[in-house]
Design brief:
2 copies of one chain form a homodimer.
Chain A lengths: L9 H25 L4 H17 L14 E4 L5 H10 L5 H7 L28 H14 L6 E6 L6 H12 L5 E7 L2 E2 L2 E2 H4 L4 H7 L3 E6 L3 H11 L6 E6 L22 H11 L5 H10 L26 E2 H15 L7 E5 L3 H4 L2 H6 L4 E3 L4 H11 L5 E7 H7 L1 H9 L4 E6 L17 H5 L13 H12 L5 E4 L4 E2 L23 E4 L4 E6 L3 H13 L4 E5 L8 H8 L3 E9 L4 H12 L4 E7 L8 H8 L3 H11 L1
Helix pairs in contact in A: 1-2, 1-3, 1-4, 1-10, 2-3, 2-9, 4-11, 5-6, 5-15, 6-15, 12-19, 15-17, 20-24, 21-22
Amino acid sequence: MNREFTPLTDNDVSRLQEQARTARTAILTMTTLAASGHPGGSMSSIDFLLGLYNRANVDPKNPRMKDRDRIVVSNGHISPAVYSTLALNGFFDLDAAVTEFRLAGSMFEGHVEPIVPGIEWGTGNLGQGLSAGVGFALVSRLNGIDNHVFVLMGDGEQQKGQIAEARRFAVKYGLTNITAFIDYNQLQIGGDIKHVMPQNIRDGYISDGWDVIEIDGHDFREIDHALEDAMNHDAPVVIIANTIMGKGVSFMENLAKYHGSPINAEQYAQACRELGVEDRLEYYAGRRKECKPTHGTISHTEVTLNEGTPRVYDKKTDNRSAWGNALADIAKANGDNNAPMAVFDCDLQGSVKTGDFENAAPGRFFQGGIMEHNTATIAGAASTCGIQAYFSDFGVFGVDETYNQHRLNDINETNLKLVTTHVGLDVGEDGKTHQCVDYLGVMRNLYHFPVIVPADPNQTDRVIRYISSRYGNFLVPMGRSKLEPVRDRDGNVLFGEDYKFEYGKADKLRDGSRAAIMVMGTPADNAVKAADMLHEGGTDVQVWNISCPCDMDEEALKEAAGTGMLFTVEDHNVHTGLGACVAMKLVDMGLRCRLIRIGVEDYCISGSAEDVYRYAGLDAQTIADKIKDNL
Amino acid sequence: MNREFTPLTDNDVSRLQEQARTARTAILTMTTLAASGHPGGSMSSIDFLLGLYNRANVDPKNPRMKDRDRIVVSNGHISPAVYSTLALNGFFDLDAAVTEFRLAGSMFEGHVEPIVPGIEWGTGNLGQGLSAGVGFALVSRLNGIDNHVFVLMGDGEQQKGQIAEARRFAVKYGLTNITAFIDYNQLQIGGDIKHVMPQNIRDGYISDGWDVIEIDGHDFREIDHALEDAMNHDAPVVIIANTIMGKGVSFMENLAKYHGSPINAEQYAQACRELGVEDRLEYYAGRRKECKPTHGTISHTEVTLNEGTPRVYDKKTDNRSAWGNALADIAKANGDNNAPMAVFDCDLQGSVKTGDFENAAPGRFFQGGIMEHNTATIAGAASTCGIQAYFSDFGVFGVDETYNQHRLNDINETNLKLVTTHVGLDVGEDGKTHQCVDYLGVMRNLYHFPVIVPADPNQTDRVIRYISSRYGNFLVPMGRSKLEPVRDRDGNVLFGEDYKFEYGKADKLRDGSRAAIMVMGTPADNAVKAADMLHEGGTDVQVWNISCPCDMDEEALKEAAGTGMLFTVEDHNVHTGLGACVAMKLVDMGLRCRLIRIGVEDYCISGSAEDVYRYAGLDAQTIADKIKDNL
């Protein structure tokens, strides 16, 4: 949207200057009171923040208003400035923020979190905010929302490579509804940014297709002009604001030490004299001791989709194709190009099978290039705006490379469906750098990102439909190979027409009493075959498919442990995956049973899936032999 | 080093052209034979590779020659071209590579791995190779080795943000001994690079201070001139080589599908006719069936350091300071600025306490800026060149953000000492985005990256000295707070003068028989205090400090489990850390014992370490209460 501003009057400027004085006082009070926090960058960016909120279309009475401008603060450590600005714009009581800053249990945390009204995205790990802003800008365009996204960043932060990725994505998709702001105070923790890591910030943005506006970041009229100007370019704009670290208090100005250190009480008194304000530190110290911390919760726009009609596969099919088919079905069942969903790819569309989705809903498919960090964050941020976001990639890129992006997504309570193919050793001949044998071991460190590992194409179909109808993060990992649908001994497909996926429920694939196998993912059919081989030799072994290792089925485990001998089979690091989950649950439940964990013991070789499985001991024959040897 | 080339003669060019024909034939033969692999980029980059090896100072008889030029192939999928080039330069038999390409058990894997003679760095995850090359170039300069480093990359790969980080680091440290090469065939998996993700590659390099040379990547004289030119600039140089995907076979040229798909036998026959070579596919197919795959191993230059003299702390000290002191001691004990070591920081030197090291050995300290991905890879690559490399960062950056860089480091059998501070909830008031409660849960997915968690400053001191004298990767995580040295009931320091760290050994901090506590890291003193509270109430509880959770002390566990009731205490995700390791080991050893895991149950609040510990139930009183409640 192009916007026209009525120029600031002298009165407007005076009002903003007075706000700035109040805000600077609040910044110093809260950091000195907490004896912790980042006053320096807060004071260099406060004028811009106030100038921005003076124009931004936000409503403190309705902070989640649908067509609000979205302001992302990527350098989350300037929280004192952000809290002050939001308070001065009516989002909450300034005294509460000053009193409770960094106090245990308060929403006014060290780094901004979306539990605070007005905060769109929790940050603190630098370099991710621009991607989040791009995600918001993208969904605004998708949903026809005529708003603008602003992203504040530090100058040291510009060193992070993910920022260049975000720039390119924004340009590719013509996102002119986003404006970035760099608080160019030229200091980072280690000192002068030119000394810590020389960088030509301006040319970097230009080379990626952005327009640059340079201003004095402490001049409200320049700030105001820049904001208006930025919203009327036909490219994304970055405003580089020349500022002064610690601006407003003479003895703090241009000193890197105030990046992350507050001043003491004596200095605070002096600062108050300079600012011409009353020293109320003791008053707030008293309040802080007695206050009941203000809580906050996150509330994103939820959305669920029509699951469409399940498919049943009776022939050998790769889970990837089942995922791609289900995804396209869901798009069709929800209005094709109008479906409230988006799919993100990193130059692997042919392999991760999202082509049919793109055909069904071309405007909802986004090609993020070989820029996984950026894409993971964009997808996460987009998922909070009333769409279901799917990010599909190889396991090593979608999980291992982007773990920290998903950690921040999870902290932000996103609604991301992460579907990774080529997990485990089942990656074709690509070798160890492509073998994601840690998808569960890594992702189960995230508290709200359950992992669902389908056993075959039929279960994949049902799992994808299930996650499409739930809010929240899920990882669905799958291998590359075509898999035989899991069948009973009569040859009937087990996850057939009547099957409905239920989160946390184990699937009994074979009955038996001599021992039990619990298997996860791709090797399910091998485990079944192993059991059938043993059956032919007169030994009946239970086989359980564990699709939800993070939330183990207790009844199934009890029954399996009842055999006295339990084998876990997984195409995953044998120390950190299914076997580890089973061991922990056995102990938690006080079940006694021998456990033999079969899985990937070390970085593995490159070869055909069949050869590699045989090498790693995950083929049916080796599984059967191991069981026989242990009975 | 500046180098002057005698210009290529017509004979030289003819010889190279003939090599190129042989190499192209080999590329097609091996990929068609394996029915897998990446012929397109192999054929676009083969001329440059041959031109480079024609000039590079490498010795096939002594591939690890100390002053060799180092060639890093970041786009590891062009392995067919690399294997062909190395074979034609005498590193091994070409027929072996052709026969065994991507065959299970052969060193000729899908992506290049350093098990192959002549390969410096295993790649396959794009965007990391330039950082590895920068690491090599840096150590060459440190060690006074007059060589040159060449890094080959794809053009799509340029989208990765880590590449811009590497560029900046190289310029900051004036590394003119590195030359990058971009195979600019303008196609990536998804098609035209301008369609997949538009990018101004040339201006990006220039904005970061690199010089650019543009050539026809199929003209040997242009390649040769560019190489000579590049080695005589006073800035790092990138050679952008205009090439043709699939070059040399008419029906393959400029088709993106040949990025990752081989031609079939019929097309192969046609290609042989075009190349004017014999179709020997059947011959190789026969060999492939019968061959015994060629193995390879990695052998890096090892180094160990003099550990210096341990320090004993009798007063409250943060582990961070103990680490910083030990590091500086080691530098001093090994020749200060000549010590065969390097320390890498990401703008957190004051917090991670490497300042004393920098004072002792300023030429061995490297400030990587806020560019963790790049720094993690640089440190890993540097560690393979006869120095001990230390990378120190906050946990969330050094572990969570850079996990995949460490995964590739580990696959490359690096010698990286990763020392992370601010782990667990003990991060000051920075809040959940800074709380690394997954350092063990994440890193134990790597097969050769043991985690050692020191309990107090004394153990930290000994652990740092221990890892300095061992080859291999280690993670040593620690919190932020000052900790009381762990003491016995008489007040004597437990890890005192006589204490020697032994990997895998648990430390008994208190004796008792009613129950046992196993504790990891920062909460050790709280666990001891809890036991002492219980002791005063007449209940004696064993306390074990587990510094090596990945390799549990079996004797200690047996003794602890013998009490019948075991509590694990950790400032870590309660599902994936010490408690999970103990549970798995209990089951593996068939020990029966109740286990109650005390740890971090969810993303936590922001506040002082003490308040946050109390909130999370990790303070001494809550630990004691939980034990009492369960006895």
